[in-house]
Write a structure and sequence with these properties.
Structural class: alpha+beta
Number of helices: 10
CATH architecture of the largest domain: 2-Layer Sandwich
Helix content: 25-40%
Strand content: 15-25%
Number of strands: 7
CATH superfamily of the largest domain: SCP2 sterol-binding domain
Shape: globular
Length: 220
């Protein structure tokens, strides 16, 4: 278990909550899903968490076998946290949970939305039915991070790194990306205001940002 608290219940769901059910735990996993990060970078992605709570959550997740800590070689020589392969298996579970929660008609979309959330949401909400005949390589630069997105055969992959050759490069704040992809904002408007910067083919960038669909709002 991640903590000493237990539900005294052998159900797999109960045990899962003992592992990642503490406040902030699953969001720490989210921040590490794209790769190793320093403590400060994790905290920057979770603006509402205190350093003390983050330290506790990382310790608990490490004891549970979900997180590892290692020191990078020189010249970096800094400590980073990363997920274990077992913890990475949580991504499809988080995708289902995220799409379920997105159906809530009271879901607030005006709160913090970081880089990890953006990239994972693209992986989650990619709609193969919208990608018929689409073949694209797009460089994504939300904030200070760089990713390479590839669309081919109605499949999407997004990895960290730089694209050697890209049909388009899209740079800007994660929320600006989301305003076009999920909010119905025209890409041309986001570019005109400077919220997004597109290099390469505008049509390729626009096509890429419209390959996603959200689930229908639930009736409550």
């Amino acid at each position: 278990m991640a903590t000493s608290r237990t539900y005294e219940d052998s159900c797999g769901v109960a045990h899962a909550l003992e592992l990642v059910g503490e406040r902030w735990a699953l969001l720490v996993v989210r921040e590490l899903m794209l790769g190793a990060k320093r403590f400060g970078d994790i905290k920057a992605g979770l603006p509402g968490i205190s350093a003390n709570v983050l330290s506790h959550r990382l310790d608990e997740l490490e004891r549970a076998g979900l997180v590892t800590r290692r020191k990078l070689p020189k010249p970096a020589a800094v400590w980073v946290y990363d997920l274990t392969p077992w913890a990475r298996d949580l991504e499809p579970i988080m995708q289902v949970l995220g799409r379920w929660a997105a159906r809530d008609p009271q879901h607030r979309k005006d709160l913090h939305f970081g880089t990890a959330s953006l990239i994972l949401s693209l992986r989650t909400n990619f709609d193969p039915s919208l990608a018929e005949g689409v073949n694209l390589v797009v460089a994504l630069r939300p904030g200070d991070e760089s990713f390479v997105a590839r669309v081919a055969r109605k499949k999407l992959t997004i990895d960290t790194g730089e694209a050697e050759e890209a049909d388009a490069t899209i740079a800007g704040d994660a929320r600006a990306f989301a305003s076009v992809t999920y909010g119905g904002r025209p890409l041309a408007d986001a570019v005109a205001t400077g919220d997004l910067v597109v290099m390469g083919t505008m049509a390729a960038a626009d096509s890429f940002l419209h390959l996603y669909s959200l689930p229908p709002v639930a009736t409550v």
